[in-house]
Fold this sequence. Notes:
The structure is a single chain. The chain has helices at 2-20, 40-55, 73-81, 114-122, 124-137, 162-165, 176-184, 194-202, 213-218, 244-248, 252-286, 299-312, 320-329; strands at 28-33, 61-65, 87-89, 139-149, 151-154, 171-172, 190-191, 208-211, 227-229, 235-243, 290-292. It is of the alpha/beta class. Strands 2-1-3-10-4 form a 5-stranded mixed beta sheet, with helices on both faces. A 4-stranded mixed beta sheet has the order 8-5-9-11. A two-stranded parallel sheet has the order 6-7. Strand 1 (28-33), helix 2 and strand 2 (61-65) form a beta-alpha-beta unit. Helix 2 runs antiparallel to helix 11 (252-286) and helix 7 (176-184) packs across helix 12 (299-312). The radius of gyration is 22 Å and the shape is globular.
Amino acid sequence: MNIRKSLLVSMFAAASLVVTAPAALAATFKMAVGDAAGGTQWELGTSFAKSFSEKTGGKHKVDLFPNGQLGDEQDTVNNASMGLLDFSILAINNITPFSPTVGVLTMPYVIRSAEEAKKLTTGAVGKELTANTVRDAGVRIIGWAYSGFRVLTNSKKPVQTLNDLKGLVIRVPKNEIMIASYQAWGVNPTPMSWAETFTALQQRVVDGQDNPYITISAMKFNEVQKYITNIRYIFSLEPLIVSEQVFKAQKPDVQKAILEAGEAATEHSYKYLLETEDRIKKELVAKGMQIVEPADGEKEWIEKATTVVWPKFYKAIGGKDKLDRVQKELGR
Length: 332
């Protein structure tokens, strides 16, 4: 009887292991993609999948699930941290709640060019932020999508000055730094999930939003927005994360392939941005959108954001010294 009971316990334990073993041990991995196919997230993901398959001799592949099919972006961080999801590509503001120091890269006007964005993410600062996300969130940043600056769009009028913003209802993500930026500019923005944004613009629940040119095109915002203001307050970064549980469960050669594929995809994303952004601007204009530059070189926008917003978030990003270090890294 005891022997039989022991066998049953062993069989049950073995069955449990089969059910709960990490999905990472399978030859096919799942990758959540927040945006629709055709944007920079998709470009990063498909580049990674191709490179990873090549580096593993075709033994492993990655299936992409765009448009939030596997849950909203913050949910994918939770699922990856528990080993329930392999990979995810998401807007950087959706990982900062889990690892706040990453928020230093979302401070307005910290990054002022694509070159600066690449330098920070692939250099010492990026390595430190990756270590922090492993520690804080149980996920590892292995790649970056470079989407360009978040420019402002709206359906009502050209906006060149902060005074022009008055009366407009602007959608923003549920991100405190972005909300504070608009408040510093004299506007009370409307926090709203990404999934609701197009419909809200279409139904005129909100007048405008901000996103990179590539996203505006991929999401067909030209159908519901008329005017673009070429502000450069936040450079849109979208990290590719892997579950740390999934990563650690791999053999060393597969871990190496994951990291190398992430680096290759990051380089591809950077080149993709440089090669496509100007073309996309022209296409949006051809579709009826108007692009205007902010007045006075964006001086009043920058002044309000850096003097009012920065001090509010020193503590959240790990201290003023974190921002000072980034500035020093950029030679400012």
